[in-house]
Amino acid sequence: MPKIGMEPIRRRALIDAAISAIGERGALNVTMSDIAGRAGVSTALAHHYFGGKDDLLFETMRHILSKLGEEIRPAIAPVSGTERVRAIIAVNLSTDQFRPEIIAAWLAFYVEARRDAALGRLFRIYVRRLHSDLMSGLAHLPHASAIRTARGIAALIDGLYLRRALGEGVEDSATAISLVEDYLDMALARHPSHRSLPHA
């Protein structure tokens, strides 16, 4: 019988264990037994809290996206224009987000989102939210250019994650941020009269 008040702690421990296991294996070929062992609970209890591995992966990715949102909101609140876009880039590719185990979880997310309807919906929410956040900082550009730039930045962020998950590409957060900022600067250079807005 699960102890009263322990569920949130154990659910979080299982999510952390799932991130760790996927990061170590670099893939989804982990079992609920492996994850439960890392979390210090029984496999039966892991199934009690999450049902199955698909449910646990969904909650793991929802947790990662929630933490990302918690970091982005205060980062962009005091700034606008180009500085808001730079803040979004910096948070998405921060040292905390660009850790190997988080990157591995994202790779699993990209793959499984095509197969699992719930993960697919979660992925689309992430895509729309990132696009909306970027557009809020690119509103000073002509609309078509803002859309093009937002899509380019989003593709670079996802691409950097995918390449790193596969053992290619840049290894550190600072270089990843610099690469995306270079793209932003080139996009802004095409519209010199619209380069930025003052801080909010």
Automatic annotation (TrEMBL):
Domain of life the protein comes from: Bacteria
The keyword Transcription regulation is annotated on this UniProt entry: yes
Pathway participation: Amine and polyamine biosynthesis; betaine biosynthesis via choline pathway [regulation]
Pfam families assigned: TetR_C_6, TetR_N
SUPFAM superfamilies per the UniProt record, alphabetical: Homeodomain-like, Tetracyclin repressor-like, C-terminal domain
InterPro entries xrefs: BetI_C, Homeodomain-like_sf, HTH-type_TetR-like_transc_reg, HTH_TetR, Tet_transcr_reg_TetR-rel_C_sf, Tscrpt_rep_BetI
Keywords, alphabetical: DNA-binding, Repressor, Transcription, Transcription regulation
DNA-binding stretch(es), residue numbering of this chain: 31-50
TM annotation in the entry: none
Limits of the HTH tetR-type domain: 8-68
Keyword presence, DNA-binding: yes
Stated role: Repressor involved in the biosynthesis of the osmoprotectant glycine betaine. It represses transcription of the choline transporter BetT and the genes of BetAB involved in the synthesis of glycine betaine.
Classification via NCBIfam families: betaine_BetI (TIGR03384), PRK00767.1 (NF001978)
Protein name: HTH-type transcriptional regulator BetI
Organism: Nitratireductor kimnyeongensis
Upper taxonomic lineage: Bacteria, Pseudomonadati, Pseudomonadota, Alphaproteobacteria, Hyphomicrobiales
This protein's encoding gene: betI
